User: Which sequence fits this backbone?
């Protein structure tokens, strides 16, 4: 049974649990008014701004505001600001970009835009720092499969490597030697290749392998095995390996050949982006 409230106590709701009674106090005035104000504000917001979700998008609101339009506007403003710089990059000779007053320098527009492109489109394969990994060449050293001048780097990026969708792509193919050479010949030529870079190798096998090399490999890799950037045949005498210099990796390369592919960037990136990223790669220390 609820006790009768004492004189000074506020009225209770009449609920009681184990002797604890619930007061029936009114909400504080300030709280109520704030609450009503939020309702009014909410209705106003719904009328002015996009609010109710519908099947396609949402109600647009009287002000016609859209966060997408705002972003599009900002992007358009940035593009407009960059347009003259990009035109400049497209008009200059590649070799002149980095020394240009307007877009050049290693803190300039071309370099920074190339860097952003590199991190977005190239780092997945070539590594965030450009140091590469097995099958993906290091772009920081002075060791080039297809040439390290700015024009050659640009052409490689633009047209890709063994990209069958690009008619001008760099193309070459090392034969599958398991079909052309005897097992012994492969073993010997692997020893010969190792003899060019390492101190430990089988002297007799390497000597036999030299003949195999001159007959079967020198056409692409050159007599002195220093490679040929025209056909993307790597230098085999510099102890830098794309696919590995141990006996197992070399045997695999010779037996089955490799077929490193890079997509052409022409068409995926703008001309200014390809040029800028070529400038960035060229400036990484290995550019010739
Ligand atoms: C899907 C992986 C992949 C992506 C993405 C990629 N590359 Fe490559 N890239 C390769 C491979 C593989 C090679 C080596 C192909 C070969 O064996 O000749 C290569 C070669 C190169 C070379 C030639 C290096 C040399 O020694 O001549 C350059 C320059 C290059 N990439 C730049 C770029 C740039 C710039 C981007 C971004 C716009 C990029 N790559 C994105 C895979 C990739
Ligand atoms: C038709 C030209 C051609 C011929 C002939 C050729 N190669 Fe190659 N070789 C290439 C090309 C191109 C590559 C690069 C392949 C790639 O990146 O996918 C390559 C790559 C290699 C590599 C990998 C180098 C590395 O850094 O990992 C080795 C090793 C090699 N060749 C050895 C040989 C040997 C040994 C022979 C002879 C038995 C031979 N090649 C014959 C074109 C040729």
Assistant:
């Amino acid at each position: 049974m609820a006790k009768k409230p004492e004189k000074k106590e506020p009225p209770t709701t009449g609920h009681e649990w184990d002797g604890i009674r619930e007061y029936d106090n009114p909400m504080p005035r300030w709280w109520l008014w704030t609450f009503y104000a939020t309702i009014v504000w909410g209705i106003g917001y719904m009328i002015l701004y996009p609010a109710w979700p519908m099947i396609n998008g949402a109600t647009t609101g009287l002000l016609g505001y859209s966060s997408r339009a705002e972003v599009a506007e900002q992007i358009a403003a940035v593009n407009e600001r960059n347009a003259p710089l990009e035109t400049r990059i497209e008009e200059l000779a590649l070799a002149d970009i980095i020394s240009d007053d307007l877009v050049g320098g290693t803190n300039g527009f071309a370099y920074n835009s190339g860097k952003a492109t590199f991190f977005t489109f190239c780092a997945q394969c070539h590594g965030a720092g450009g140091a590469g990994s097995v099958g993906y060449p290091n772009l920081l050293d002075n060791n080039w499969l297809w040439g390290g001048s700015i024009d050659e780097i640009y052409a490689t990026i633009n047209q890709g490597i063994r990209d069958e969708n690009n008619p001008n792509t760099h193309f070459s193919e090392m034969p599958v030697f398991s079909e052309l050479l005897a097992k012994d010949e492969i073993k010997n030529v692997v020893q010969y290749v190792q003899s060019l870079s390492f101190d430990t190798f089988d002297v007799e096998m390497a000597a036999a392998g030299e003949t195999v090399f001159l007959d079967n490999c020198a056409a692409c890799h050159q007599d002195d095995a220093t490679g040929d950037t025209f056909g993307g045949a790597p230098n085999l005498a510099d102890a830098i390996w794309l696919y590995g210099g141990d006996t197992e990796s070399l045997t695999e390369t010779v037996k089955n050949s490799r077929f490193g592919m890079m997509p052409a960037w022409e068409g995926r990136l703008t001309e200014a982006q390809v040029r800028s990223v070529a400038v960035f790669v060229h400036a990484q220390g290995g550019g010739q």
Remarks:
- The mean pLDDT is 93.
- The pocket of heme C (ligand 1) is lined by residues 118, 121-122, 124-126, 135-137, 139, 144-146, 153, 156-157, 161, 232, 260-262, 265, 277, 281 (CB under 6 Å).
- The radius of gyration is 35 Å.
- Residues 132 and 177 are 27 Å apart (CA to CA).
